[in-house]
Design goal:
The complex is a heterodimer of chains A (about 180) and B (about 220). By secondary structure, chain A is α/β, with parallel strands linked by helices. Chain A is built from 4 helices and 6 strands. The radius of gyration of chain B is 18 Å and the shape is globular. Classes of the chains: A alpha/beta (about 180), B alpha+beta (about 220). Bound molecules: zinc ion (ZN) (2 copies). The site of one zinc ion has 3 residues of chain A, from helix 3.
């Protein structure tokens, strides 16, 4: 109910642009522990994107929401309850229309996802702030966010790669206890 | 209207293995059956793209809008930056009608499309649905909003495309009775406006053509 009220307030605040809602109706993560690792086959991606992924996971998701994050050093480990790392990320020169993409590589029954592939569009001319926004945006897709809003934050266009109240309300609505 | 993703390819595989296929028809929904029928496993992907509020805006932001049919998938390039590999094909279409822009019926234009995964043996794997949209298949009739390909893109493609898809809101299949249909997934869930592609679904090609021409002329 709090979420609904908050969203109502935000919708009113953003009334200058047409109301294009977004929802958390995409596939969502399999638990509130969101693990990640670098799945790049090209070592030069790591210093460019790696620190930003770590920054978003630590300082946006972990610090501001009910979702816990952990960097892991495995792709698959049979001894764990959720054996696949949740996010494997890399960068690539993607075909136009240019933009990051998020794929549920191992869908679970219902609408959860065991293992995501997040690929950033490797654009050397992109400023650092633009990259941070893109990283935050794609990672929110792995938590179930859909595109559509334009009220800032990580899903609604940023631009600085920081969660806004709308993002946080959705995430906590889904993963909060 | 919202097309819910109810089940999954891996679950389907699991079901198939467990039941040896006997109960499949009873275990999957109508949408899933359709997917099994029209060819192989799929994988769903979100992709960022430019959104437009109206047909007019989308037409103005495009260099070329055509009705055509897919002639073939020319070889493009392989994406291999990470854990999985996939194939970007160059979709070549023969123009039947120019709705806006500088081209003529009979011309061939093309655009890149990440069509499917590549298995370790190099054979095509799962078909990639981008925002719900299937790769435009040879023979398929479609309306597509295109932009000229910048010189710095797709340089490594075997057959370099002439254009690229301006927005996933501007890719439509055409039904037998001349109506356009977007395969975009609708996430609006009844709140807010559906995506533009979905809002334009059901429009007759003559009406779409008229509105695009009007926008291009304004
Ligand atoms: Zn993986
Ligand atoms: Zn997105």
């Amino acid at each position: 109910m709090v979420v609904a009220i908050l969203l109502g307030v935000l919708a009113t605040a953003g009334a200058s642009s047409p109301a294009i809602a977004h929802d958390f109706s995409g596939r969502y993560a399999d638990s509130s522990l969101h693990t990640w690792w670098n799945g790049s086959a090209r070592s030069y991606d790591v210093p460019v994107w790696g620190p930003m992924v770590a920054d978003i996971m630590d300082n946006e998701i972990e610090r501001k929401t009910a979702v816990r994050t952990a960097k892991v050093s495995y792709h698959y480990r049979s001894g764990l309850r959720y054996p696949y790392v949740d996010i494997s990320w890399w960068a690539d020169d993607l075909p136009a229309p240019k933009g990051g993409k998020t794929t549920c590589e191992r869908p679970l029954s219902g609408s959860a996802c065991d293992h995501w592939h997040v690929v950033f569009d490797d654009d050397p001319g992109q400023p650092v702030d633009g990259k941070r926004q893109k990283v935050c945006h794609e990672i929110l897709h792995t938590l179930g966010a859909d595109d559509g809003s334009n009220d800032g934050g990580c899903i609604g266009g940023g631009p600085e790669g920081k969660l806004n109240a709308h993002d946080i309300a959705h995430i906590n609505g889904k993963y909060g206890r | 209207m919202a097309q819910k993703r109810t089940s999954s390819s891996s679950r389907r595989l699991f079901v198939l293995m467990v039941t040896a296929g006997i109960l499949v028809a009873g275990c999957v929904g109508a949408g899933e059956r359709a997917r099994l029928e029209d060819g192989g496993e799929v994988i769903e992907r979100t992709s960022e793209y430019e959104r437009f509020e109206s047909l007019e805006e989308m037409a103005v932001a495009s260099d070329l809008v055509v009705l055509g049919h897919v002639q073939r998938w020319a070889p493009g390039r392989t994406l291999s930056g990470g854990e999985t590999r996939s194939e970007v094909v160059t979709v070549q279409i023969i123009i039947d009608q120019v709705l806006a822009g500088d081209a003529r019926p009979g011309d061939v234009v093309s655009f890149p499309w990440e069509a499917h995964e590549l298995r370790p043996d190099g054979e095509p794997g799962r078909t990639i649905l981008v925002e719900g949209i299937r790769p435009p298949a040879p023979g398929q009739e479609l309306v597509v909003f295109l932009r000229e390909l910048p010189p710095d893109q797709e340089r490594d493609a075997v057959v370099r495309p002439t254009h690229y898809v301006a927005t996933f809101d501007g890719v439509f299949t055409v039904t037998e009775n001349g109506v356009v249909r977007s395969e975009l997934q609708d996430f609006s869930e009844g709140e807010g406006l559906p995506r533009l592609g979905i809002r334009l679904t059901g429009l007759r090609i003559e009406e779409l053509s008229r509105q695009v021409a009007q926008a291009a002329g304004s």
